[in-house]
Amino acid sequence: MSATAIALDVGGTYIKGAAVAGDGGLFHTERWFTRAERGPEAVLETVLDCAAELAERFRPAAAGIAVPGIVDEAAGTAVLAANLGWRDLPVRHWLSEHLGIPVAFGHDVRAGGIAEARAGAGRGSRDFLFVPVGTGIAAAVMVDGRPLTGSHTRAGELGHLVVRPGGEICACGARGCVETLASAAAIARRYTAATDEPGVTAQQVGERAAAGDIAAATVWQEAVDALADGLASAITLLDPERIVIGGGLSLAGEPYFAPLRAALTARLTFQAVPELIPAELGHEAGCFGAGLLARDLLGAGVAA
Predict the structure, then answer these.
(1) pLDDT for position 26
(2) Alpha helix locations (H) across 120-267?
(3) Tally of domains in the chain
(4) Is pLDDT of 112 > 60?
């Protein structure tokens, strides 16, 4: 079966791939291990090989790729993707040259926001925040269905709002960022530090909290409070109609959303309280968004 486009979402653990049908839906998905420990050049070669494999199989007219970190969509460059070892890498140029077709390039979270806006939990909302809570935390600030990039392509770094000044040092170099308490990685790490029990996931911490585990309940509530603080700041500045929470923690359901709604509402005074709901597209959002960006290229009549 031929595809209108192929899509790639490059992460630190997996490279997700998809083929996009004429109606915009994904009709084939797969994933490969990134194996980032091999170095940035090896990761790039793997990305190119994965794209070529999809292109050979589905004969697309365009491709889309989404990458994490700091990206310059206009230039098609991965400015800094720490988990991949990429710095100032012209990803769009390399992929387009390798495949010989037009390539759309985007940020993974902003691409996910586009997908949720058109086909997921953001449908029908003019302005919303898409906030994946996983290993890290970021946000796509969606305005009229399009993500805000900012003048330096760094808009949406919700996870690096400082909510606990002087707190735990963050990977970004600051102390007390939202991400140091509220990310899935932070929840698992902080529970292990409190109990000396390794290997417990964030979702398991939530389950233990609901079952009455005091250490788990403390870590869980501190995570909820930190995220609520960050979201309250974002709401004050941006006044979104809706907040769409994605990532692994969104799968925890009401044991996560109920206390988060309560904590967020308690922090707001004059601000309108936005609807707070789980994302609908799960781990496919970034790849889906990359595919939509590729189809947009075709609609704009862009040539390779």
Answers:
(1) 79
(2) 179-182, 184-195, 202-210, 214-238, 254-267
(3) 2
(4) yes
Under the banding of pLDDT at 50, 70 and 90, the label for residue 299 is: confident
Tell me which residue has tokens 């494999």.
Answer: 53
Q: Using alpha carbons only, how large is the chain's radius of gyration in Å?
A: 19
138 and 147 in contact (C-beta within 8 Å)? no
Task: Verify that 32 and 105 share a domain, yes or no.
Answer: yes
CATH number at residue 291: 3.30.420.40
Q: Which residues of 25-63 are buried (b: 16+ CB within 10 A; e: fewer)?
A: ebeeeebeebebeeeeeebbebbbebbeebbeebebbbb
Q: Which domain holds residue 186?
A: 124-279
Q: What is the DSSP string of 94-144?
A: HHHHHHTS-EEEEEHHHHHHHHHHHHSTTTT-SEEEEEEBSSSB--EEEET
d(CA 4, CA 28): 12
Shared-domain flag, residues 153 and 173: yes
Q: Is residue 262 part of a domain?
A: yes
Using 50, 70 and 90 to split pLDDT, how confident is the model at 304? very low
Same domain (yes/no): 131, 174: yes
Q: How far apart are CA 148 and CA 112, in angstroms?
A: 13
What's the start-to-end Cα distance of the chain, in Å?
22
90, 12: one domain = yes
Instruction: Answer yes or no: is 119 within a domain.
Output: no
Strands 275-278 and 242-246, by their bridges, are parallel
Give the model's pLDDT for residue 171.
86
| Whole-angstrom distance, CA of residue 51 vs CA of residue 164 | 42
Closest by CA to 153, choosing from 90, 88, 69, 87, is 69
